[in-house]
Amino acid sequence: MNITPIEIIGLIAGFCTTFSFLPQVVRTWRTKSVDDISLRMYLLLCFGILLWLYYGISMQSVALVLTNGVSLILTSSILVMKVLYRNRGRQ
């Protein structure tokens, strides 16, 4: 994988979009509240990010691989919490 100036721009852009999920991960983990989180949206988002990750690996793009790898971890953690905590508030 080759890091070019355009890859650096991709890394900066990816950093911004990837870490935008972090506040939601932290809030969901702390509150265990997932009622306002859409399961379908996060399933589709995780699948899309997985495809971007595959694409990045195929294109040998450092920016796509790193940012989508981290994004997949963050969005998947929200998805897992949605499944684990979904019945907590309804008891």
UniProtKB/TrEMBL annotation:
Its main location: membrane. The keyword Membrane applies. It is a multi-pass membrane protein. The keyword Membrane applies. It is found in: Membrane. Keywords: Membrane, Transmembrane, Transmembrane helix. The chain crosses the membrane at residues 6-25, 37-57, 63-85. InterPro entries: PQ-loop_rpt, SemiSWEET. This is Membrane protein.
